Amino acid sequence: MDHFFVIHYNELGLKKGNRDYFENALCANIDTTVRDLGAERARRISGRVLLPLKADADTSEIKNRLGRVFGIAYFAEAWASPQAVENLEVNAWSLVEGRAFKSFRIDTRRGEKSFPLTSVEINQRVGAYVKERSQARVDLENAELTCWIEIVEKYALIYVERLPGPGGLPVGTSGKVVVLLSGGIDSPVAAWKMIKRGCTPVFVHFHSFPYTNKESQEKAKQIAQLLSAYSLRSKVYLVRFADVQRHIMVDTPLETRVILYRRYMMRLAEQIAWREKARVLVTGDSVGQVASQTIENIDVISRAVSMPILRPLIGDDKIEIVDLARRIGTYDISILPDQDCCSLFVPKHPETKANLLEIEKAEARLDVAETMKAALETAEVLLESPSYATGEVHKL
Ligand code: ATP
Ligand code: MG
């Protein structure tokens, strides 16, 4: 039998007019993700995507990678059968024969409603055939084995194993965002959540090299590369922040420095966003997690720029964030030791209730414009692609 992956997406929330756009983006993303594994081009058929396979396709790695393509609700490795019910009986049986099961059900969906039999009639015919040969009972609620039949175009697709996709929306359908990426645990998870909703990330990492070592930059690159298994590609700006910090520390009260650093990070990130035609900034802040993340500080930091700052982890507990970071795979990189730029030239007990007027007064004495310009001009810009594109396969 011919061999495919059948891929389903969540139709909920897809507006009629946008449907083509989402489906085409999903097909293009699937092609990019599995093109080296012996798959033909993905195509849309009656509310789902069909991925035809060549004889030598690496189906186990295709499964692995489809599990990371946002926009997929679930998918299955399926075999094609002619649509005549006699063929469905024989082919369904050949797929389940040899498996151990005491109860089963047949679940038919018709993508083509013109088909002469109803779904229920097909279930009954194929169910009776399998029952007779397997001696198993039919159980519609708690079957040990489900055999799905999807009637589409000129075939029926038959499969017995449904795998979950990661949900979300196809990457690239929601526009570009600039993510402030530290070497920590939180910001990679924040980025992942935005990618999940279809956004293309541009990462900005600030470092204090040569006052610190290069580890944080290395981590940011590795995290961006790992996340590109989801985002398909990502751009990374490595921005030298040390000179900006040196300017800030000349004439400002010690306890305000973290706030000032953050405000300048926002300003630099906003300029990169304009250049990249991105519309929002994204951070990994969660209320109250550390001193710089009190509501007062979030307020004062946000007012440095006019661009909206999205904080997808704002209401999450650390334990939830760590759990997600582990599942995504970024956790192990995030916990590697590094020297965070924000710990440079700052006090043990930073400001927790920043006052906008005071901060603005401190900033008024600073002349950082030239330094900021230099920081942007000397930023190193890299393109990261998924590890499989560079030969090493990252398995989740
Ligand atoms: P994270 O785990 O993401 O580092 P955190 O809990 O350590 O977050 P902070 O260090 O206060 O909290 O950082 C808050 C947010 O500010 C980060 O999630 C990130 O978006 C941004 N940020 C902090 N440091 C940097 C940096 N060096 N480069 C880019 N963004 C940064
Ligand atoms: Mg941090």
General description of the model:
This protein has 13 helices and 15 strands. With 396 residues, the protein is α/β, with parallel strands linked by helices. The protein has 2 domains: 3-164, 2-Layer Sandwich (VC0802-like); 176-390, 3-Layer(aba) Sandwich (Rossmann fold), CATH 3.40.50.620. Helix 5 (186-196) links the parallel strand 10 and strand 11. Helix 5 packs parallel to helix 6. The longest helix is centred in the C-terminal third of the chain and has 20 residues, at 257-276. The protein is elongated, with a radius of gyration of 26 Å. It binds adenosine-5'-triphosphate (ATP) and magnesium ion (MG). The site of magnesium ion has 3 residues, from loops.
**What Rg do the Cα atoms give?**
26 Å
- String of helices and strands: EHEEHEHEHEEEEEHEHEHHEHEHHHHE
Q: Tally the helices: what do you get?
A: 13
Secondary structure class reads: alpha/beta
Q: Show unreliable segments.
A: 391-396
- Level-2 CATH architecture of the largest domain: 3-Layer(aba) Sandwich
Task: Kindly report how far apart the N and C termini lie.
Answer: 30 Å
**What's the rounded overall pLDDT mean?**
91
* Ligand catalogue: adenosine-5'-triphosphate, magnesium ion
CATH level 1 class label of the largest domain: Alpha Beta
